[in-house]
Design brief:
Distance between the termini: 16 Å
Order of helices and strands: HHEEHEEEEEE
CATH class: Mainly Beta
Helix content: under 10%
CATH architecture: Beta Barrel
Structural class: mainly beta
CATH topology: Sortase, Chain: A
Number of helices: 3
Number of strands: 8
Radius of gyration: 16 Å
Length: about 210
Amino acid sequence: MREGPARGSPRISTVIAAAIFLLVIGASASCSAGTAGVSTPGIGNAPAIALAETPVGLAPTTAPTDIAGAPIGSGYRISVPRLGIDLPIAEGDITRDTLDQRTPEGFAFHLPGTTLPGQRGNTYLYAHARQGMFLALWNARQGDEVFIATPAGQVLTFVVREILPRVAPTDVSSTQPTTMERLTLQTSTGPSPLDPRFVLFAFPRGG
């Protein structure tokens, strides 16, 4: 069963959540020209969807806290070695990334209001579906390891457990708080705000 939203936790503004999921993050004409070896999520060739029960008792690298999500500071980095992903993480900007449609390249962005890596709850990161960014997530598999390096020199290790290759733009459930530590990664599947989004869930290694 998929883990539900945390009861009693502050919920992200519906406006913010809806806006972030309408991002055109990736898949432009320039992106399409450089997708060799990457399987486009879609009917008939979507990556396998893992609907396994959320792992219980996973041991995070650092003890999670109950601190509400704060803006992420400098010095965080995400890497997925098997997929060739290695990006600095910066704080997202709802106006810039949604209303202005000017999401910068070369970064993964932390969704404002979600928890920081290593805290109990839902850490939500998004990036363009372009080469060198989150495009390679289309080829993610259950069991892939995701590493988050922190400014303190720690490395948090997560394991991909669930892959959702075609999430409707109106479905913002994966942005909601969770009762246990979870890393959520999102990218786009096409150039239109109406195109489905690609979302995966990873959990701390150890379960």
